[in-house]
Amino acid sequence: MLVIYFSYALVHASRKTLSTVKPSLIIDWTDNISGEQPLFPDKHAAEGFLAFLDGAFLGAYALGLYAGGTLGDRYNPAKVLAFGMWTSSITVLLFGMLKWSPFHSPVYYAATWIVCGLFQSVAWPTEVSIMGNWFGHNSRGAVMGLWSACASVGNILGTLVSSNTVQLGYEYSFAANACSLFFGGFFIFYLLPSRMTHELEAVVSVTDNVERPKAISFWQAWRLPGVIAYSLAYACLKLVNYSFFFWLPFYLHTHYGWKESVADELSAWYDIGGIIAAVVAGIASDHFSSRTPILICMLIFSMGSLFAYA
Hints:
This protein has a single domain, classed as MFS general substrate transporter like domains (Growth Hormone, Chain: A, Up-down Bundle), CATH 1.20.1250. By secondary structure, it is mostly helical. The protein contains 13 helices and no strands. The two termini are 38 Å apart. The relative contact order is 0.14. Keywords: Membrane, Transmembrane, Transmembrane helix.
């Protein structure tokens, strides 16, 4: 579980890098001191392009989630996950290094970040399927509550790495998080199969003579009771969550005038709250016949906190 936990934490750490260095990117993209043509004429154009990058990344990520889940079901999940970590780390590194390359243009920035979204999409569905197969329904709330905090842990790690390297140059922030993700892929590749092999050996004698059921199609899964309702609710939640994920450090920097590194560190408190809530809600949900009341209460409290924050 720890290997899976830290693998997705590293994925989120690399994903967080862009949101923590946006002020530096805007300065670099609009700088005309060197005499060269800047990437954008003013900061508003640069901000608009950063918003486009966020949307393009999420669009590619959403499209890739289905394929990522399919790959994890058909092939060795450890190899699929390691491949996703290695390839996405390369794209994160390339994104930060584009300023030094002859391909320093919006087109290449967009293409690199879109490809990164596609590669990162294999991580979440693959890891969820692994965790779901390892733990039973009765303890799943506590286990998944603890494990799902890995995203917030990764956000904090990525934020802290960026806040300590951005003063050297934003490219170092991308490089540091990319290298961590790349080497983390080796831990997945070599450590995860042993656990999975053990699990398979334990059940092979039981399933030798049992015909495995056919996997349902995408549309059949979509028609399962509750899938549409929970998907729409989760989409609304993600809308708010990713708004904070992508723009909170930049908002704190521009609205309050705080240093970029200070704004990055303060934004980490949002994820600290996410860790606490995930653990508490997960444990509490195991003591109810339905997990829905816990979700409703958490969403109501989050609405109140948003109004207070505004």
